[in-house]
Write a structure and sequence with these properties.
InterPro entries: MazG-like_dom, NTP-PPase_MazG-like_C, NTP-PPase_MazG-like_N, NTP_PyrPHydrolase_MazG. It holds the Pfam family MazG. One of its GO terms (molecular function) is nucleoside triphosphate diphosphatase activity. The protein has about 270 residues and is an all-alpha fold. Among the domains are: about 5-105, Helix Hairpins; about 225-265. Helices cover about 70% and strands about 0% of the residues. The chain has twelve helices and no strands. It has helices at about 15-25, 30-35, 40-60, 60-85, 90-105, 105-110, 120-135, 150-165, 175-195, 195-215, 220-245, 255-265. Helix 3 (about 40-60) packs antiparallel against helix 4 (about 60-85) and helix 8 crosses helix 10 (about 195-215). The longest helix has 24 residues, at about 60-85. The protein is globular, with a radius of gyration of 25 Å.
Length: about 270
């Protein structure tokens, strides 16, 4: 019988979590679901947990943030345990790899370089180090290494940033706004053509340019869209609440009434 003392120690910290995951993945005594998982099957959960961390931060719910960070940490431990089971690496290798990377990318803190740098200079130095790392790994192209699995808006911004480093960029946001107008016109023309593939292509072009505008305005398009989603949710729930006061649901209303309620919700500063 395995000694479960550590696993039930409320102050066991990381060793406790690692031990729990080892037990869950034990082929003889573990959980069938956990044993059955692989990198690909849990990757969507990893992405979801990262967004739930961001959501807790957006809501400034620090108690929830603690829990969500734990969920995200579990994902890292889960991936590392799968890797250990396959003889690839373990969680200590993961920690050492990121530690080495942080030291290499901060010579002004851990090395001999002068710490008296602006944030902009430190960012340029950081990008130079990352470029050298990509070159050393055989990634010679400007866009090499931008992860395919990123959310599409974030990947668009990363691609644009890479291209901008070599001079492929508009000088300011006014040029991007003009391009947005052009893309809207092209989307309208595609919609009139009735060609669904062409419509999708032009819609994608418009989203890509919108992401570029966010980058020029120093905004994160994912964050902006999450905030818009949250605002839409608050206002629509307000509409539902007003209708419920009359014993009705949205399907019992019509667009004109709900649109008027939406305008009323907009006038409420909290919504």
């Amino acid at each position: 019988m395995a000694d479960d003392t550590l696993l039930h120690d409320p102050d066991g910290g990381m060793p406790r979590l690692i031990g729990i995951m080892e037990r869950l993945r034990d082929p003889e005594t573990g959980c069938p679901w956990d044993i059955d998982q692989d990198f690909m099957s849990i990757a969507p959960y990893t992405i979801e947990e990262a967004y739930e961390v961001a959501d807790a931060i957006e809501r400034r719910d620090w108690a929830d943030l603690k829990g969500e960070l734990g969920d995200l940490l579990l994902q890292a431990v889960f991936h590392a345990q799968i890797a250990q089971d396959r003889g690839l690496f373990d969680i200590a290798d993961v920690a050492n790899a990121i530690s080495d990377k942080m030291i290499a990318r901060h010579p002004h803190v851990f090395g001999e370089e002068n710490r008296d740098k602006s944030a902009e200079q430190q960012t340029r130095d950081w990008e130079a180090v990352k470029a050298a790392e990509r070159a050393a790994s055989g990634e010679g192209g400007t866009l090499d290494g931008v992860a395919m699995g990123l959310p599409a808006l974030l990947r668009a911004v990363k691609l644009q940033k890479r291209a901008a480093r070599v001079g492929f960029d508009w000088p300011d946001s006014s040029h991007v706004l003009k391009k947005i107008q052009e893309e809207v016109e092209e989307l309208h023309e595609a919609a009139e053509s009735g060609d669904s593939d062409h419509v999708e292509e032009e819609f994608g072009d418009l989203l890509f340019v919108m992401a570029n505008l966010a980058r020029h305005m120093k905004l994160c398009p994912e964050t902006a869209l999450r905030r818009a989603n949250a605002k839409f949710t608050r206002r629509f729930q307000w509409i539902e609440a007003r209708l419920a006061e009359d014993g009705r649901r949205p399907e019992d209303s019509d667009l004109a009434e709900m649109d008027a309620l939406w305008d009323a919700a907009k006038r409420d500063a909290k919504l």
